[in-house]
Write a structure and sequence with these properties.
This protein is mainly alpha-helical. It folds into two domains: about 1-90, no CATH class; about 105-205, no CATH class. It is built from seven helices and no strands. It has helices at about 5-35, 40-60, 70-90, 95-100, 100-120, 130-150, 155-175. The longest helix has about 30 residues, at about 5-35.
Length: about 210
């Protein structure tokens, strides 16, 4: 029997990174559409961009294509699209944003805090991609997509926001546990038990 043709596998290797790059390219287009008030175009660029967030990670994990470059591109794409999503909320869904400003504010503040501390800690985005953060990302993507396509669903907002706050809290904990950058950490439970030391005496070593 002839060995399998490696060409299709070689093509698949680039799909996750290509999807992340597509998300990165979509971000400035989304900001521009928000700035000029083109809600229809904004929506039909945003929804596919949100779908790629789940697709690239699933393909990478399913085919064993995870890489440090892929993790960085994925995190960068996520960050840019979520900032573009916030621009869209301000431009097109300001009433919903204002009505739930404390909840949206808490989600953005927690996410921003984790990113700032990760940059200070590792000089890069954390790219932990925990299980909880993936769940939160799917729920937030579903909520934002549904908001622009169908309207506000209060229960989904609270579910997505709660998952996002818990995911940010776990990633802040991981920042305290991991003295060196490590991508694709499933969660705090995935690490072997560690002894937590006080902040002034340095970071604990897993």
């Amino acid at each position: 029997m002839a060995p399998p043709d490696p060409a299709p596998l070689a093509v698949w290797r680039h799909v996750p990174n290509a999807l992340s790059l597509a998300r990165i390219v979509c971000a400035p287009v989304l900001v521009l559409m928000a700035a000029v008030g083109e809600q229809s175009i904004y929506t039909w660029v945003l929804v596919p961009a949100l779908l790629t967030d789940a697709a690239d990670g699933w393909i990478a994990r399913s085919f064993g294509l995870q890489s440090r470059l892929g993790a960085r591109l994925d995190s960068l794409g996520d960050s840019l699209v979520w900032w573009a999503g916030l621009a869209g909320l301000i431009a097109f869904q300001y009433d919903v944003l204002a009505a739930h400003r404390w909840l949206f504010g808490a989600v953005v503040a927690a996410w921003l805090l984790e990113n700032v501390l990760a940059w200070r800690r590792y000089r890069r985005l954390s790219s932990f991609h925990t299980v909880l953060s993936k769940i939160a990302g799917v729920l937030l993507s579903f909520y934002v997509g549904a908001l622009f396509l169908f309207g506000h669903w209060n229960w989904l907002l609270w579910l997505a926001a709660t998952a996002s706050l818990l995911a940010s809290a776990e990633e802040l904990w991981l920042l305290a546990l991991l003295p060196q950058w490590r991508a694709d950490v499933k969660g705090v439970w995935w690490l072997r038990p560690v002894r937590i030391t006080r902040w002034p005496h340095g970071w604990p070593t897993p």
